[in-house]
Amino acid sequence: MKKLIARFFSMREAGVLLALVVIMLFFGFSTSTFFTPNNLMNVLRQSSLLGIMTMAVTFLIISGEFDLSIGSTFALSGISAIVMMESGMAPILAFLIALIFCCFIGLFNGLVVTKAKIPSFIATMATMMIVRSIVLVVSGSRPRVLGDRGLIAKIMGGAVLGDVFPVPIIWLLVVVFVSWLLLSKTTFGYKVYATGGNIRAARLSGINTDRIKITNFVLTSFAAGFAGIVSLCFLRMVSPTQGAGYELDAIASTVIGGTALAGGIGSIGGAFIGSFILAVIKNGLVLLGTNAYIQDAVLGAVILVAVVINLQVAASRNGVRLGEQIRRVFLRRHQKEVTEESDTGPGS
Amino acid sequence: MTTQETVQTKATTSGQTACPKRRLIDYRGMTKSFGGVHALRDVSFSIDTHEIHGLIGENGAGKSTLIKISGGVYSPDSGQMIFDGSPAVCHEPRDAEDLGIQIVHQEVPICENLTVAENIFLDPVPPHRGPLLDRTEMVRRSAETLRRLGIDLDPRRPVSRCSAAERQLILIAKALVEEAKLVILDEATSSLSEDEVSLLFGVLRKLRSAGTTFVFVSHRLNEVIAICDRITVLRNGRFVSTEDNFEHTMSVSRLTELIVGCGVTTDAIEDAKLAIETDHDDSCPRLRVCGLCQHKLGLKDITFDLAPGEVLGLAGLRGAGRTELLECLFGVHPPTKGELILDGEAFRPRTPRSGIRRKMAYLSESRADELFYEQPVRSNASAVVLDDLATMGFIDRRAESNVAEECVKSMQVSTPSIFAKAASLSGGNQQKVLLGRWLAAHPSILLLDEPTRGIDVGAKMEIRRMILELARNGVSAIYVSLDSEELVQVANRILVMANGRIVAELRGSNVTVANVVHEINVHQGLGGGCTPNADSVPVSSSSSATRTSSSDTPEDR
Predict the structure, then answer these.
(1) Which helix (H) or strand (E) holds B333?
(2) Angstrom distance (rounded) from CA B307 to CA B285
């Protein structure tokens, strides 16, 4: 038993899993409905859209960049698909073209960040505003209804398998599995870690770090667009203001899941659990009948606590103090670059 | 107590000190372990006032743990530290500072954007009137401290315009503003050139006679012998001995012996070098560099050949262009002009990938630039060859483990397993992993920039021996080091660089430390002038030097 516990705590995801269990137990004891199969399925379904985006965002953050534009991209894919369908395009084609639009947004973000060297926070904030504006203009700022679009709409999100599994959950599981494979089993995943962990070292080892980052931006926008279409098909409608705030939820999920904002550290499992925690809290607070206005405050506090628990577990695993672990995860670890540049400065 | 007395008599007879010595710090049975690993085991020794006390040992010998305990970063598991006659308990760095213990760390924690004075008062509370900063007072006190150190430096100058040595001195000034009794210098000279070191040592001697005690931690044994009055050696967390060195005449080999116990000796390296020196083939160079220029890096008209199995030394001061030349060859910064011929084919480096594809390996100056700290040894070892270990993008973990195991075995890396985080290894072992990473790609040219910087003597010797071993098997190497002795030890031929040019070439019996130092100093003096005339002198001398070098080689067409 002791061995089992020790093994559990040596896992990277131990901290966040512990946080999840604590939170679920809390809601389980304080409400009578939380632990019903129906409700749990509901939570999983609610976490699916955010989960899909969180997976890609995890790649991006591990490689050392951010994306604030995913909320807007999410809305763009739904709105553009529906506008195209309304003009008579086949649904499957409309979905594909909408996704291609999204990929271009990612490509644009990636190029601006890597080639023009504008910090991703600023670059993607600009994209966020531009894309949101496009969405509002294209939609005439009114919500649209999907209507009956046949089988493809069912596959993308409308169906409920065996009256139990809503399709979004299946998509989530597929995306999680593929992401896990990509990040932990392939050279691409390795290069993502290398790029975020030490970009100069990655470059010297022959890794095309710009390409890695651009790929991640495209993946992120694609995931946001994909989630947008799943959402459209599930809800059978889309509003032009939808998705606002998703970018922060996705970042919060990855961070709760143990991903370092400075890049180089993180895992798919952790991020998945992180997005699930967010969904659990939102659901639990509703079951508790909490005032809707204080939900965000609780959410904020829980994020903070979850991150601290996570860091504490990681700290004890690494045999360092909490402060040292915080420094490792949140601060730039190698300031060498700065001193070196200035060393050669006066000489030349 | 008897040793203490002999120390005192020796000190007074050698005339080192005017005032009586007393014990400043007394370590008694210091023990500290981290998760089962003993970092310090029952270490006891003492440091007197008015002395510069050397603390040496391999990486992982326990030096940094002891320093951190002294500075209040760690507390010992058992043992006691008697400071100035009374037991000292330091729970946090503040406590140690209050006692008068200051640590100057290896990594320079300095703010580029601030002035010298602002940096000096970064940590002690700056002079202020109410909430307002008193800048005049700050500058005055900084100037006074700098004067006390004998440094001619304007406190209002931005640190971004200070040299590496000046930065190091600023940190010492910072320590002294707080009236430190004991200043611990951790690898203070690792980034300084020889001239800068002697400047620093002058200041240390002056302060010693003024009553400050220093602990000098360094891997550069020559410097330790030159500056320290007594030297304490640690090995594997245990105290080995404290040696008297008041005459500064201790031999490096004796210290090496104490540090390593047993290991690779200088003789072994000389043997390895002799084995390659004889059978040299000059007829077809592995790499020929013709008129290479890189405007941004300031490289001008670089021409030289590199033979198969040759270890070519590259000497020169910081900023002379040595690192820049390696980066240019590897493709980090592509050359703007000039021709490169590699194994008989033209070669145009554009990115590091092009270097790697043509079987080059580049071990850069700082480990921080190369290591993936958060990743296990396995990922670090396989970084360069990873694409070859994958099918359809999926990494073959078994093949990757084999590469890592091979690296650990052939480089003799001491690590609990290939799954240990790179950050948990000692500096020497990290360096071995990095070298192993490149060797996994079976390179034919090694570009080595300070491959043994900041690592312990034992590992230094091992790495040098490995490089010579590789050279014997036909691998060529360009070896950059600030340490002329190291260059002379490994290189068959040495090029001296200054101001982005090759200014001299030493080969055969001319490869001596004296010659290297001489060439560096001669050309440095010329390069330092700012009149256009003075600048043109090294140009002519460089072209003549390169001309002689090419006429020396028989394959000259």
Answers:
(1) none
(2) 4
With beta carbons under 8 A apart, name residues in chain B contacting A191. Answer: 386
CB atoms within 10 A of CB B173: 24
Q: Are A257 and A58 contacting, i.e. CB atoms less than 8 angstroms apart?
A: yes
Q: How does residue B4 score in pLDDT terms, banded at 50, 70 and 90?
A: very low
Residue with the bigger pLDDT between B158 and B400: it is: B400
Is the ipTM of this structure higher than 0.95?
no
Which of B365, B374, B396, B437 would best serve as a mutation to test chain A binding (most A beta carbons within 10 A)?
B374
Asked if residues B555 and B282 have their Cβ atoms less than 8 Å apart, the reply is: yes
Chain A CB contacts of B324 under 8 Å are 344
* Closest C-alpha among A218, A224, A208 to residue A105: A218
Hey, what's the torsion of the CAs at A70, A73, A78, A82, to 10 degrees? 180
Q: Do A345 and B383 touch (CB under 8 A)?
A: no
Pick A346's closest partner by Cβ from B35, B163, B362. B163
Q: How is B266-291 classified by DSSP, letter by letter?
A: HHHHHHHHHHHHSS---SS-SEEEEE
For β-strands B78-83 and B360-363, DSSP reports them as unpaired
Establish if A327 touches chain B: CB-CB under 8 angstroms: no
Q: What six digits make up the tokens of A111?
A: 């190029």
Close Cβ partners of B541 (under 8 Å, ≥ 6 residues apart): B503, B504, B523, B526
Contact of B375 with chain A, judged by CB distance below 8 Å, is answered with: yes
Best of B193, B363, B369, B397 to substitute, by most chain A Cβ atoms within 10 angstroms, is B369
Place of tokens 């860091």: A311
The pTM score is 0.70
Secondary structure of residue B67 in the 3-state scheme:
helix
CA nearest to A202 within chain B: B370
Interface list for B 19-48 with A (CB within 8 A): 34-35
Q: Quote the tokens at residue B489.
A: 């030890």
Q: Are A123 and A242 in contact (CB under 8 A)?
A: no
Q: Do B384 and A206 touch (CB under 8 A)?
A: yes
Q: How far apart are CA B229 and CA B162, in angstroms?
A: 30
Judge whether A275 and A50 are in contact, CB under 8 Å. yes
Cβ–Cβ of B369/A200 closer than 8 Å?
yes
- Asked if the C-beta of B160 comes within 8 angstroms of chain A's C-beta atoms, the answer is yes
The pLDDT assigned to B174 comes to 79
pLDDT tens across A163-190, in order? 888 999 999 999 999 999 999 888 899 8
At residue B373 the predicted structure's pLDDT band, cuts being 50, 70 and 90, is confident
Average per-residue pLDDT for chain B = 79
Calpha distance A231→B491 (Å, rounded):
67
